[in-house]
Amino acid sequence: MVVTYRKSGVDVEGADSWLxxxxxxxxxxxxxxxxxxxxxxxxxxxxxxxxxxRPILVASTDGVGTKLKVAQLVGLHESIGIDAVAMNVNDIxxxxxxxxxxxxxxxxxxxxxxxxxxxxxxxxxxxRQSGCVLLGGETAEMPGVxxxxxxxxxxxxxxxxxxxxxxxxxxxxxxxxxxxxxxxGVHANGFSLVRRALTRTQLKxxxxxxxxxxxxxxxxxxxxxxxxxxxxxxxxxxxxxxRRLPSLVKATPGxxxxxxxxxxxxxxxxxxxxxxxxxxWEEMLAxxxxxxxxxxxxxxxxxxxxxxxxxxxxxxxxxxxxxxxEV
Length: 327
Known about the structure:
Elements: H1 12-27, E1 34-35, E2 44-45, E3 55-63, H2 67-74, H3 78-93, E4 98-108, H4 113-130, E5 133-141, E6 151-162, E7 177-182, H5 191-197, H6 200-205, H7 207-210, H8 218-225, E8 232-235, H9 241-244, E9 255-259, H10 268-277, H11 281-287, E10 292-298, H12 303-312, E11 317-325
Parallel strand pairs: 4-5
Antiparallel strand pairs: 1-2, 3-6, 4-6, 7-10, 7-11, 8-10, 9-11
Helix pairs in contact: 1-4, 3-4
């Protein structure tokens, strides 16, 4: 028997064919700054197109975690592509950075064009929502590592902010107000606990709510930053609301965040998860965003204006905490 790469399970020609069909979709995210890449495995971006005098580059890389398992269970994948973008652009946004470009990494056992196209459509949607370019990526066919229908996806994003506008948290003061911006639900965090709490039948039943894509806050917040003095931000992921809020005062010793209980609307999906798993409120707060996807610190006199600004972009917002001196 003659052994070939294709007989080993890797279809290079098939991958090239799929990418060629998707090229127009990818190019729909392109704009100023994109340079020809000569067909190599890297993307080129011209920093002069950013229009900043002293730009600070801000970078992030992240995946979607075990939320993938719910998507694979019900065969809905487009929102996962949005998640891959959102988890990264929201992470760099907390420094006041505008996302410039995004790269994705997709690994599958064997080529699955229909599934992969769903994911790519989601990635493109996420890039459009955040105003960044899909600069490139990698599709890896890995037979023997992923079973049929399984995949993993991750992303990498680079943004920039003017040095004097960098949000480093050092301007936070006692008396400031924390404004919480509504999430779309669970986003892409805590799904190991979700999958432990809910049965397979429940995962299918609530799949639409569970797979709601992570909200991308880039455009509304960048717009608000032009006129409202936002002093710090926290993306509520990777540890839940109670574990992420303290990062708002990490750069200002002697201050603490006091959460105002029942000051915002908690989506019903969290009540379903809590009841199904018999999970304590403290554990829920430490694991999930509980309805708050992003937290912004501003002076108290600006809080109402910030809430209204978010409302204009159809994002519910509430004062959810205050900044106080440590006792």
